[in-house]
Amino acid sequence: MLANESHTDVPEALLGSKKKKKGITKKPVCPNCGHHFTEVDNWCPNCGQANRTHKRPVRYFVREFFEELVSLDVRFFGTFRDLVIKPGLLTKNYNADLRVRYTSPLRFYVIASVLFFVTVSWMTNESIKKADSQLQNAYSENDSLLTDMNFNMGSGFELEPEDLQALAELEAPNIQDVDSLLTARGKESNWFTNRFTLGIIPLLNGEFSLQQYYSRLVRNFSYSLFFFMPVFALILKMLYIRRHQFYTEHLIFSIHLHTFAFLNIFFFLWIDYFQDVFPVTWMSSLIIPIYLLIATKVVYQQGWIRAVIKSTLAFWLYIFITTIGFVFVVVLSIF
């Protein structure tokens, strides 16, 4: 029998009273790939499509929606509990293929990162607006606020006050205008210097918006973490190279660690917002390396001495790399 020959429903009597009560109607053949079902097949073993029709009363869709919602909540809170309260257990179970009980690592990471960045943006919004207003006032009081300075980027590239004044006077500048001006004034002109110079022109002519810059910085910072997470996983891979584990196992650990870091900072930001008693900043900073130490011991099943050595190496290597990366992000956000 071909897939398009018959979509006749199996009599509900064959499905049992329980399935009849739920309103599930099975088909003898998968409409998607043509596989012939047996009576007990709830899913197509060939393509994975559910063996049930969507042509049912609305009440069944409502019931399914709430069933999946409750299931998601159970997975979400179970994932949250094992991630926060039991360092390393979530990664250990997930890498042992105990996955159906948990929300996927990337989905949980996205939820945590959104909570973090929305909170940071909201809490700093007024401060950024105030600083932006002060900057604009300073521009209005002194047109040469920055054009009387020297920009020295090293490697022989320096912009003197005369160069900055000429840049500030450019109307609707583009990369070609900047290239021509730098060449005419005997300055080094290449891909980086041209784009850096074009990026600082709004700072010179008073068109720079601190709010826009901050929005770009937060956005670029969030994007950069999708690069830094694999970098941390690579550090773990090198530290545990003799274990012959897959890189993806270390990547899961990295995703879970970054997720915890976001939740930890999110939590302490709100504590700090409502009170000024406890030293919240250093407490938050201290918790992350301690969490990494315990999680490393649990995930890699090693003694405390090795766990301390390797987690410390991983932590400071990562801090060094991310510091360089974040400086690059700060500069890149100007462009």
Primary descriptors:
3 domains, single chain, two-stranded antiparallel sheet, 2% strand, mainly alpha, 335 residues, 65% helix, extended
Low-confidence stretches: 1-23
Fraction in helix = 55-70%
| SSE succession | HHHHEEHHHHHHH
The proportion of residues in beta strands is under 5%
Q: What is the rounded Rg?
A: 29 Å
Order of adjacent strands in the largest pleated sheet: 1-2
Q: Which structural category do the helix and sheet elements fall into?
A: mainly alpha
Main sheet specs: 2 strands, antiparallel
**What would you call the shape?**
extended
Strands, helices and their partners?
Layout: H1 16-22, H2 58-84, H3 89-95, H4 105-141, E1 151-154, E2 157-159, H5 161-168, H6 175-184, H7 191-205, H8 210-239, H9 247-274, H10 280-300, H11 304-332
Antiparallel strand pairs: 1-2
Helix pairs in contact: 3-9, 4-8, 4-9, 5-7, 6-7, 8-9, 8-11, 9-10, 10-11
Brief overview:
The chain has 335 residues and is an all-alpha fold.
Please explain how this structure is put together.
The protein is extended. The protein has eleven helices and two strands; from the N terminus they run ααααββααααααα. It folds into three domains: about 70 residues, no CATH class; about 170 residues, no CATH class; about 60 residues, no CATH class. With about 325 residues, the chain is mainly α. Helix 6 crosses helix 7 and helix 10 crosses helix 11.
